[in-house]
């Protein structure tokens, strides 16, 4: 039985008034068509969790339309979205025919800020085979909630009358919110959708919840069944699942809690969903720690994609032959795939690195590689090489010779391919402190390259 309680006043208090007004408009439009409208998923979870009396910022809202006495027509969600678009012409409307859902988007709107509202018709999803994309059919709100991932995400608040404000909690979500549990609704959940393992971990770490014991068993069963490997190897059903898996990985690896999330994934042996050999060894954990420290200092504005580099370090721990397979499977950007592909060769080349080399030799060796490659190599290197790479990036690679090509011209040298050689030798001599100032540099050039 649904737990009856009128939540509307407390929701209204916690929402920004413009957003609240939008929900009222949506409810009225649904009601006029003889439908019910529900606020579902993460928004309900977060509203119930929020203890603060301040308004909470919701940027992502899920609404579900359902019929009054029978299921709504499959197109109801899309029709409602179209109507709301008339009321809010500044919103962008996008429709996903396949799933019969529509989304209204506001980008930095003066009143609503950046907001994404998904509107779907209550639906049942059939998974024609494990991890497939669901096939969709109109259904009642209960069925719609039953297809969801965790009890805490399977709550709905009715926005239409009668009994507006009623909280629908068919699966014990409120109890699990109170007892801080992540719990699936049925034993097949992870087989149907492997990305839910990553979601379970994400919610557990983010909210400070525990994965309920039975749910953990289901995760372990799903992982040990080898289903993910078979999916990967046959590359079936491919794109959509991979995209969702990558999105979840990004979410986890970009979050401030990424370290605890990886540790929990490893504890659940769920890194094996990516590759059966992937385990978080102490060594790998150290590499990730170095990566974070380096990125914090070398790339504070996050010009590089830190989450992706974390993923690359994880993948780099696999055998060279497996790295590119996984990178391709996850459809990583070309740069990442190239880096992982070249890693073995680069690491062999870097073996020449030693503290006995002159600074100039280090620079000539390392300047061939781009910053992300150097950072990843450094994290995987032994301390001596790591120190050399650090010095190269932070100091030596920025060194300039006291004179440049213009000075060479003034000295009477004619621009030619030899210029580069001269400038390189000057740079090396500067790095190795054989020359310190302009006079010494000019002297150096004249003695090594006399003008005929
Ligand atoms: N959902 C699901 N299975 C998935 C992804 C999503 O059942 N693999 C359902 C959940 O009910 C979830 C809702 O779809 O609450 C919306 O998904 P999403 O926006 O990804 O998650 P939120 O719960 O809103 O989480 P967040 O606050 O992190 O965005």
UniProtKB/TrEMBL annotation:
It comes from the Bacteria. GO terms for biological process: tRNA processing. Its cofactor is Mg(2+). GO terms for molecular function: metal ion binding; nucleotide binding; nucleotidyltransferase activity; tRNA binding. The keyword Isomerase does not apply. The keyword Ribonucleoprotein does not apply. Keywords: CBS domain, Magnesium, Metal-binding, Nucleotide-binding, Nucleotidyltransferase, RNA-binding, Transferase, tRNA processing, tRNA-binding. Belongs to the tRNA nucleotidyltransferase/poly(A) polymerase family. This is CBS domain-containing protein. It comes from Aphanothece hegewaldii CCALA 016.
């Amino acid at each position: 039985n649904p737990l009856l309680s009128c939540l509307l006043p407390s929701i209204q208090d916690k929402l920004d008034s413009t957003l609240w007004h939008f929900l009222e408009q949506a409810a009225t439009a649904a009601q006029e068509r003889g439908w019910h409208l529900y606020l579902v998923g993460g928004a309900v979870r977060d509203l119930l969790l929020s203890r603060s009396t301040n308004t909470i910022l919701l940027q992502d809202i899920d609404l579900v339309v359902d019929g009054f006495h029978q299921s709504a027509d499959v197109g109801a969600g899309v029709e409602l979205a179209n109507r709301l678009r008339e009321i809010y012409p500044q919103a962008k409307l996008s429709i996903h025919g396949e799933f019969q859902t529509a989304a209204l988007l506001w980008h930095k709107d003066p009143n609503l800020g950046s907001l994404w509202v998904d509107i779907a018709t209550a639906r049942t999803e059939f998974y024609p085979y494990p991890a497939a994309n669901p096939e969709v059919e109109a259904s009642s709100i209960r069925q719609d909630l039953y297809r969801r991932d965790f009890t805490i995400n399977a709550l709905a608040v009715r926005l239409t009358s009668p009994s507006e404000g009623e909280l629908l909690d068919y699966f014990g979500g409120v109890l699990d919110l109170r007892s801080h549990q992540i719990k699936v609704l049925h034993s097949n959940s992870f087989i149907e959708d492997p990305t839910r393992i990553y979601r379970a971990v994400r919610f557990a770490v983010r909210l400070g919840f525990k994965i309920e014991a039975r749910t953990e068993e289901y995760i372990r069963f799903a992982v040990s069944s080898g289903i993910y490997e078979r999916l990967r190897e046959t590359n079936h059903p491919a794109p959509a699942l991979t995209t969702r898996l990558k999105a979840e990985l990004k979410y986890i690896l970009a979050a401030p809690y990424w370290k605890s999330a990886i540790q929990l994934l490893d504890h659940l042996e769920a890194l094996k969903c990516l590759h059966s050999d992937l385990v978080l060894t102490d060594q790998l954990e150290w590499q990730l720690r170095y990566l974070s420290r380096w990125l914090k200092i070398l790339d504070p504005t996050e010009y590089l994609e830190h989450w992706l580099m974390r993923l690359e370090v994880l993948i780099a721990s696999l055998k060279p032959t497996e790295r590119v397979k996984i990178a391709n499977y996850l459809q990583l950007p070309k740069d990442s795939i190239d880096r992982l592909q070249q890693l073995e060769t680069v690491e062999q080349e870097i073996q020449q690195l030693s503290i006995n080399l002159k600074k100039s030799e280090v620079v000539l060796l390392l300047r061939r590689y781009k910053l992300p490659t150097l950072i990843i190599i450094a994290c995987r290197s032994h301390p001596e090489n790591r120190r050399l790479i650090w010095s190269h990036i932070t100091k030596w690679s920025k060194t300039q010779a006291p004179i440049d090509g213009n000075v060479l011209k003034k000295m009477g040298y004619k621009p030619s391919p030899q210029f580069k050689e001269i400038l390189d030798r000057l740079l090396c001599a500067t790095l190795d402190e054989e020359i310190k100032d302009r006079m010494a540099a000019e002297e150096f050039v004249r003695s090594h390259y006399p003008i005929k």
